[in-house]
Design brief:
Blueprint: H1 6-16, E1 19-21, E2 28-30, H2 35-51, H3 59-76, E3 84-88, E4 96-99, E5 103-107, H4 111-114, H5 117-132, H6 135-156, H7 161-201, H8 208-223, H9 238-253, H10 269-272, H11 275-293, H12 297-311, H13 315-325, H14 329-342, H15 346-354, H16 359-365, H17 370-396
Parallel strand pairs: 3-5
Antiparallel strand pairs: 1-2, 4-5
Helix pairs in contact: 1-6, 3-5, 5-7, 6-7, 7-9, 8-9, 11-14, 11-17, 12-13, 12-14, 12-17, 14-15, 14-17
């Protein structure tokens, strides 16, 4: 029988003591991440995602999302959370997300499936449920647990490094399929169940959830988006999900008190769209494309040299400045583009960017158009392609040895 290291035993006892209980379901939870840590990380991630997205400014969309979100947040009983509800203008993205602390964002692509504010309550109730059940903290704690498991295996099998390596490899695969993915699916199911209760308490009929998920499934089938087998997925399949919803709806109906207010329809995707919004979405794609190009050393060099060529500036100076500002290549190039086109200093453009101004707001402020910036980024991508081709030809050029 191998002797267990005292450190390994201490780690095991520490993890054993980190227990909590999920609201409404009463499920035992493993939490070693404090709520303040979780909220701080969530706030940072949320701001970063919004900065890299196109935010909708459609007044009706914002008003309805915030109305429904605030009604659900009131019954969530988390007064210490700073609830915030944003709408991201992306008609192709049928999704929504929440980060710890109550920051929720919904993509306009989910509006057709939701249809009205009750359908929206299904989605927002699910996201708010993730937040109050502290699912993100559980996943972070889970990651630390898996890390500790590797330490324990290495400690027990330390005298046999080859066997330890084989066990750790099998442990990684087994943890993914046998623990991480089922755990993720259980969290999604729990968010569905709690979400039904929250929307019911907020005055929305939980039975509508079945219609919403039916429209979601039809939408996926229409787009030809295949799903992986459920055991390899982070979410339960549609059939499993609807079966679970049917079993939980009677529980949620006990909390349901119909609201006397008229249920509002969500605006259509067509009514929310505009030339400026389309140009801004296209700009974000160009920014992401630049970041992808810079993902390897040769691509990064091509991006830097191409930007220097367009701006008639020293590429090494530009790259050093970007690193100091801690910006992605795409974001930095777009900011430099605004500065170049508007004939103003980068510092002034940076101030507007850091204050949260959108690309359309920044271009308008400096009397240029989003389409002007879009053209600049298109030229940058084209020049990057040319530079990368030249670099590739140089690397393939045969070298001759001289005597």
């Amino acid at each position: 029988m191998p002797k267990i290291n005292p450190l390994v035993l201490a780690i095991f006892l520490f993890f054993l003591s980190a227990c909590a209980t999920a609201p409404y379901t009463g499920r035992s939870q493993f939490l070693i991440v404090s709520e303040s840590q979780e909220v701080s990380l969530g706030e940072e991630a949320y701001r970063q995602i919004l900065r890299e997205s196109v935010l909708s400014r459609h007044s009706d969309a914002l008003r309805i999302v915030r109305k429904v979100g605030e009604r659900i947040a009131r019954v969530a009983n988390k007064p210490n959370y700073q609830w915030e509800f944003s709408v991201i203008d992306d008609p192709d993205n049928v999704n929504a997300f929440v980060v710890p602390g109550g920051k929720v964002a919904i993509y306009t692509g989910i509006f057709p499936a939701a249809r009205d504010e009750t359908g929206l309550a299904v989605v927002l109730g699910h996201e708010v449920a993730h937040a109050i059940a502290r699912h993100a903290a559980e996943r972070m704690s889970q990651g630390q647990l898996l890390g500790a498991g590797q330490i324990i295996i290495a400690g027990v099998l330390g005298s046999n490094p080859q066997l330890a390596n084989q066990v750790l490899q099998a442990y990684g695969l087994g943890a993914g399929v046998g623990f991480v993915l089922p755990f993720s699916r259980s969290q999604e199911s729990e968010a569905d169940r709690i979400g039904l209760i929250l929307m019911a308490k907020a005055g929305y009929d939980p039975r509508v959830s079945l219609q919403v998920w039916e429209r979601m499934e039809k939408g996926d089938n229409t787009k030809g988006q295949g799903s992986p087998p459920e055991f390899l997925s982070t979410h339960p399949g549609y059939e499993s999900r609807t079966q679970q919803l049917r079993s939980w709806i009677p529980e949620a109906l006990k909390y349901y008190r119909p609201s006397s207010q008229t249920v509002e329809l969500l605006p259509s995707l067509r009514s929310m769209d505009s030339p400026t919004a389309r140009a801004e979405r296209e700009l974000m794609k160009r920014i992401q494309a630049i970041n992808q190009r810079a993902g390897d050393p040769q691509g990064e060099r091509a991006v830097v040299e191409a930007l220097g060529h367009l701006l008639r500036m020293d590429p090494s100076r530009l790259n050093q400045e970007r690193q100091q500002l801690r910006l992605g290549h795409g974001q930095y190039a777009a900011l430099r583009g605004v500065s170049f086109l508007a004939r103003t200093s980068l510092r002034r453009v940076l101030i507007a960017y850091e204050r949260g101004s959108s690309w359309s707001e920044m271009t308008k402020r400096y009397s240029i158009k989003v389409t002007d910036l879009l053209s600049f980024m298109r030229r940058l991508l084209r020049t990057t392609t040319n530079v990368q081709s030249q670099l590739r030809r140089r690397s393939l050029r045969p070298r001759y040895r001289t005597r």
